[in-house]
Design goal:
Structural class: mainly alpha
Largest sheet: 6 strands, mixed
Number of helices: 33
Helix content: 55-70%
Distance between the termini: 60 Å
Number of strands: 8
Strand content: under 5%
Radius of gyration: 30 Å
Length: 674
Amino acid sequence: MHLFVRSRRRKSHCLTVSCFCKSHSHSASPHLFPAPTQIPDAHLPHLPVSNSLPREAPSSSSTSSSFPSCHRQCDPHDDIVASNREIAHYIRDGDIGSARRVFDGMRHRTTVTWNSILAGYAKSPGKFREARKLFDEIPEPDSVSYNIMLSCYLHSFGINMARAFFRKMPLKDSATWNTLISGYAQRGDMVQARDLFVEMPKKNEVSWSAMVSGYVECGDLDSAQKFFEAAPVKSVVACTAMFSGYMKSGKVEEAEKLFRQMPEKNLVTWNAVIAGYVGNGRSEDGMKVFREMIYRGMSPNSSTLSSVLLGCSNLSALQLGRQIHQLISKTPLSRDTTAGTSLISMYSKCGDLRDAWKVFLEMNQRDVVTWSAMISGFAQHGLGNLALDLFDEMVKDGMRPSSITFVGVLMACNHAGLVEQGMEYFNLMVRDYGVEMRPDHYTCMVDLLGRSGKLEDAVDLIKKMPFKPHPAIFGTLLGACRVHKNFEIAEFAAKGLLDINPRSATAYIQLANIYASMNRWDQVAGVWRSLRERKIVKTPGYSWIEYKSRVHKFRSGDRVHSELSSIHSKLDELEKKMRLAGYVPDLDCSLHDVGEEQKEQLLLWHSEKLAIAFGLIKLPREVPIRVFKNLRVCKDCHTATKYISAVEGREIIVRDTVRFHHFKDGVCSCGDYW
């Protein structure tokens, strides 16, 4: 019978959060950030773009001079313990120079003293020579000394040099073996890790956990499970690793079962659960787990909040995201770059670009991920010129763009219809920055060329790719073929997509849409018949809107929402107003072989129109209506939303799989280019 072991609790350095705040408000100053639809394309608002903004002067309590210096207040030669404590303090603060001065001033040193200063050098990048010299000078090195040096070899020179040092070590304990096993596991060399594990004379919880974690990271869930089941004691580390493995493989039920069996859960465990749910498309469950974690008194870290904010983005839960922001502002995480970047992404994806920009401006430190997130935010909202201006500022600031940065840049060119600029950035990626081209970059370029009607150029680009096309590339080309009604290239794209994934619903559905737009109803029926015969499930389209921290979902022709009667009445009222203003339903967007009157009714009940009507009923006039859709918004809904924004005098923001659309006064920010 296997046992679960409880590990000792470690003190958290995060502030304990007792509850969520019920309200949160951010209002960017108008001179800092004009409304998204009013941002001028000609120039970027003034940016304090220095990557290292002025910091507040540290309080006297945080300076090293305030530390009760043992070598000033007492004799370090007689008080080894106090000096050791002071060295450890400096090492924790990363001040190796001050630690060395205390060390050099000591007349008497123990092996603990030597190990403390050795660990400081071992953790400092580029200090291997000093660490090795210190190690050679230790009068009586113990197993801790050797283990510190082994880790130093591993981090400085890699696994082979560490293995050579390992062979010569006269003292080896469990930590020694575990260090090398973990080194091989982290490198993905599970054959060597397993050989060492078998050779290891006495295995402990860490040994078993390292093997389980290694196999999980390598994607070998079967081997991970075998080691997990064979482990005599199930540590919290091994359980968490196995849980993550189940989640990454989509085995959510097995993961949940394991989670329920765990007698103890640490912060890493809770983070794995939240990230697992969010990564498997169950963000609502992830949010529930986060609330339970807070209720149990756990303090979140940047990893926790990154997953939670990603969940908010997936759900478009702006109000919850704002509560998380307020939570962050009350902890040291308010100065954390990762947390700040996650907030930028959350606000951008939830349709609040104003607060995303405000967070960006207020950050003390920005890394390449931060800049990339803000560039992508501008791009997704159709502010291509601002995205490109920000990219220029990033380069001027000395930040080297990454592969992800260029995805945002190419997306900006795509959404702004900047074909020539897009080609230029696509070419300089490798030429000027040495960034390797990836499928995402090619997908952006195919989309850019396809949307501008250059379908033949898009096909040529696909044929010249240095690797096999990704399914998304053919799916993107299919979408462009539908817009431009190019059946010949559509068949090429559909064949390419089905060659990669014979069960791709996208290929069949896009072909059916193209046939329908050309009134080839027999061929439409044939496509649907093929879907049924192959038992391929079509992803259902739906839209949702947040109201009072609750997400309301709608499907086309929805008949289950509790307020459907009011929604239908509102849509009937809107249709009359829109027709008086000049709206004519686009019947090509109705893919059913039915009469015109029925097509008009089906179009009126599209999911995004239902969600917009709900927002008009529930939300005050001064609040923008934010609607989100899991598929591309259709042409008729796009046109109708422009009319609704005009006749109702409301700002409406719609996010689909392509971009954000800001509708106001009968105009969309995309310029009808999407």
